[in-house]
Amino acid sequence: MTRSLVTTLAWWLLGAAVGLVLGGATSPGQQYLPGGLSSFANSSGGWTILTFATVVVVTRRPSARRWWTAAGLGLVVFHAAVQGYVVVSTLRGFPDSYGPGDFWFTAATLAGPVIGLAGLWWSRSPVLRAAGIAVLAAVMIGDGVSGMVRVADTTGTTWWLISIAVGVTALGWVVVRRLDGWRERALAVGLTAVGAAAFVALFSVL
Asked: What phi and psi values does residue 42 have, to the nearest 5 degrees?
């Protein structure tokens, strides 16, 4: 039990370090990425991809495949990514804050564990794989649609269209190549549609 706890804490510490580095890189990315791509560096979809990818890579190791390890890793990476963005932005002369009560703090706390589990489910049973890809696809599509509706006039459409394309492509690839049963395929598509619609509805009232 003690060894398991120590191993889990080690993975979480690694996740925190990775999140800080990746999140910190998004701050200059917001300024130097070309054109409409700069929106990637300060978007739900951008931080979701970073968190999801980190969990997928880490949970390839057997010692990181416990559900609580993956959920905690998602929480830690998402929080660390946003904190890294804030720290680097502040050091660059663009003061920012992050903490309880802040929107992104709440978003990281609620979404981080879910994204962590989705990253773990990527390599599990077909039903869990369907649910995992639906989480990623719903965020990417929902964030893209929301961006097109709310802020495209000021940010351009490039990243938001890419975000939608990434979500649709990832969903399509898993449905065609990684799922065999029609029930699992319908589950992946249905959960994605519901999740994306809920994402757009939520951001429309914030």
From this structure: -145, 55
Percent of the chain with pLDDT over 70: 100
**Rounded to whole angstroms, how far apart are CA atoms 151 and 142?**
14
Instruction: Supply the DSSP string of 149-202, one letter for each residue.
Output: HHTHHHH-SHHHHHHHHHHHHHHHHIIIII--SHHHHHHHHHHHHHHHHHHHHH
Please provide the distance, in angstroms rounded to a whole number, between the alpha carbons at the two ends of the chain. 43
Which whole-number Å values give the CA distances from 34 to 8, 39, 181, in the listed order? 38, 10, 41
Per-residue pLDDT, 99 = 83
Measure the CA dihedral 168/47/40/28, to 10°.
-160
Q: Is 0.85 topped by the overall pTM?
A: yes
- Give Cα separations from 178 to 51, 133, 163, 172, 196 (angstroms): 21, 10, 21, 10, 21
Is residue 5 within 8 A of residue 103, CB to CB? The reply is no
Residue that has been written with the tokens 């869990």 in this structure = 128
In three-state secondary structure terms, 33 is: coil
